[in-house]
Design brief:
Elements (H helix, E strand, L loop, with lengths): L12 H24 L4 E7 L5 H9 L7 E5 L14 H4 L8 E5 L8 H4 L5 H20 L3 E8 L2 H13 L9 H8 L1 H15 L6 E5 L3 H22 L9 H11 L15 H9 L5 H9 L2 H5 L6 H12 L11 H5 L7
Parallel strand pairs: 1-3, 1-4, 2-3, 4-5
Helix pairs in contact: 1-9
Length: about 350
């Protein structure tokens, strides 16, 4: 199954930035609609170390109403949890009706890490498949929407990301010796993942395999999948979908855009004296100065107080600006390129 996945799929930055605002707004509206309809949702993320689960969850939750969801980062069971049936701790984390629960790793650790690392007897993890299918069937029958993602990257890509993280002093702690041990056992995990996908992909708990080599592609695919499943849940109950707010969103973005006047010269590295000379000549923005530069050196040299030396300073700080009106970089772009093992 995994060997047939096309890991070269990509999405351009321009298309990503064009689509994400509408997807995020749509997801927010659907969260509200499911809250009003008392539809509970379980979203779980599994995948290779460094596949981008953490950053994807961060992006997913940024525009959700925090009152309507809970996030769980699943670790190994604690001592007292090991004295209970193994799914007990996950039952306790199910969301109330109308709410969402997001799992960064989940009960599938039973048939992945516990299986490969031999932390659980074979008969126990094999029984885990049946337990998981029954668990998901039970909550689905009770009205829960179960959305499951597996983020897939190649062994080579995983190694590349580990190396990149280790070079950054602020992120090196993300890569632990156990992560490299998992990397060495990539083939064993591959076999375990294949069997997990085959045996637990059900009508009520469908898996979505996400091609995670390109982060933009992965994030858009996850948003679209969640949106589709929530719309499906509302329609199956005969409930209306929230109105599409795309035109409304476009108007809001236009209102939030930088004014036509452009970027002030105070945002450049020009000296205060040069800024005063330019502003006195009616050139108060980066765009205005750049337009004057495009007319040739004579256009600026004709201004009072602008000589060859100051012209060189202006060119150094403004003439090299390729895009005087850069698109604002929001939280999405700030995360682009971040990698973490979970």
């Amino acid at each position: 199954m995994l060997e047939k996945i096309d890991l070269t799929k990509k999405l351009s930055k321009k298309e990503f930035q064009a689509r994400m605002p509408q997807l995020r707004q749509r997801l927010y509206d659907l969260q509200k609609a499911c809250w009003d309809a008392n539809i509970p949702t379980v979203i779980l993320f599994e995948g290779w170390d460094a596949a981008g689960k953490g950053t994807s969850i961060n992006l997913l939750t940024q525009r959700l109403d925090p009152r309507g969801f809970k996030l769980y980062a699943i670790q190994a069971p604690r001592t007292y949890e090991m004295q209970m049936p193994w799914l007990w701790r996950f039952w306790l984390k199910l969301p109330n009706y109308g709410e969402m629960a997001i799992f960064d790793r989940s009960w599938y650790g039973r048939v992945l890490v516990e299986r490969v690392e031999k932390l659980t007897p074979e008969h126990a993890w094999r029984q885990g498949y049946r337990d998981i299918v029954n668990f998901e069937r039970t909550i689905a029958d009770d009205g829960y929407v179960v959305i499951k993602f597996y983020l897939h990257i190649s062994k080579r890509e995983q190694r590349k990301r580990f190396k990149k993280l280790e070079k950054d002093p602020l992120k090196a702690w993300h890569v632990q010796p156990e992560d490299w041990e998992h990397h060495r056992k990539y083939h064993e995990y591959f076999v375990a993942v294949e069997e997990m996908l085959e045996r637990t992909d059900t009508e009520w708990g469908r898996w979505t395999i996400v091609e995670a080599t390109d982060r933009r592609w992965a994030r858009v695919k996850m948003f679209e999948t969640i949106i589709y499943r929530l719309e499906e849940a509302l329609q199956s109950r005969g409930l209306p979908l929230p109105a599409d707010r795309a035109p409304e969103l476009a108007e809001q973005e236009a209102a939030d855009a930088p004014p036509a006047a452009g970027i002030p010269l105070s945002n450049t590295g020009l000296s205060s004296r040069v800024r005063q000379l330019l502003e006195h000549a009616g050139l108060a923005t980066v765009q205005a100065v750049a337009a004057k530069l495009a007319e040739g050196d004579a256009a600026l040299l004709a201004l009072d107080g602008i000589g060859p030396q100051r012209l060189a300073q202006i060119r150094a700080h403004i003439g090299t600006v390729a895009d005087p009106l850069p698109s604002p970089a929001g939280p999405v772009d700030a995360q682009e390129g971040e990698e973490e093992p979970c």
